[in-house]
Design goal:
241 residues; six-stranded mixed sheet; five-stranded parallel sheet; 10 helices
């Protein structure tokens, strides 16, 4: 298994795709997706474009859909919810498809959707990601951070480092694909005992704090909280493995 880390989808190679892509958007898309599926959501469909989300979700019964829209950290008008994992309770999402569009995470999913296997990772389901990769042993793995509007995000690379660290501990069959893996592992080692403080210092964490999302940061900073593993069953549609 050869592991590569890319800080943003824009930094991934354009001429090929991996055997398995792991999309990471800790604050908050991939945390929300894992939480929704853990709470009993039927599926999650991701969109980079809000108008397309509205058009396709309109074909579903209102009782079977939820529209989750976020731009700049705030809820999009006309949607049932924003991008907070705390809204994904069994009472709210159970049995429904979550139609979601976010500033960064859904764009990353779109970039790698044609890969042989696509899963999403966050700190809360780090071990589930590691267990899947250890079991499947894909030849090439991309850990793709979503970043923020094309730029680097501290929390996504730290999460990628957390996954790479656990992979190295759990299997000997891992090859470092690029220097970003070494850097991300070092970053995780530095912050592993104080992940919430890392969120508080990161630019997107501070953006969410200004929106009074303190509890979201606390939730997203939990490691190995759930064994829910979102996996793509068709382009842009994720179910719980």
């Amino acid at each position: 298994m050869k592991v590569f880390i890319y800080h943003t989808p824009e930094l991934t190679p354009s001429d090929h795709l991996p055997d398995c892509a792991v999309v990471i958007d800790v604050l908050r898309a991939t945390t929300t997706i894992a939480t929704a599926l853990n709470a009993g959501a039927d599926s999650v469909q991701a969109f980079s474009d809000l108008s397309t989300l509205m058009e396709i979700s309109e074909t579903w019964s209102p009782e079977k859909r939820l529209r989750a829209g976020e731009r700049g950290g705030a809820t999009v008008a006309g949607c049932d919810m924003g991008n907070s994992p705390l809204d994904c309770t069994p009472e709210h999402v159970g049995g429904k498809r979550l139609f979601i569009t976010t500033t960064n995470g859904t764009r990353a999913l779109q970039r790698v959707e044609d890969s042989a296997s696509v899963i999403t990772g966050a700190l809360i389901n780090r071990q589930a990601v590691v267990d899947y990769l250890t079991h499947k042993q894909p030849e090439t793995v991309w850990l793709v951070g979503s970043g923020w509007e094309g730029g680097y995000s501290l929390e996504d690379t730290t999460c990628a480092g957390a996954i790479a660290t656990a992979l190295k501990q759990q299997t000997e069959k891992i090859e470092i694909g690029n220097d970003e893996v070494i850097a991300a592992i070092a970053l995780y080692h530095y912050w592993q005992d104080n992940l919430l403080e890392m969120f508080n210092q990161s630019s997107h964490g501070q953006r969410l704090l200004r929106l009074n999302c303190h509890e979201d940061l606390k939730y997203c900073s939990q490691i190995d909280y759930t064994d829910a593993l979102p996996i793509q069953k068709e382009p842009s549609v994720l179910i719980r493995l």
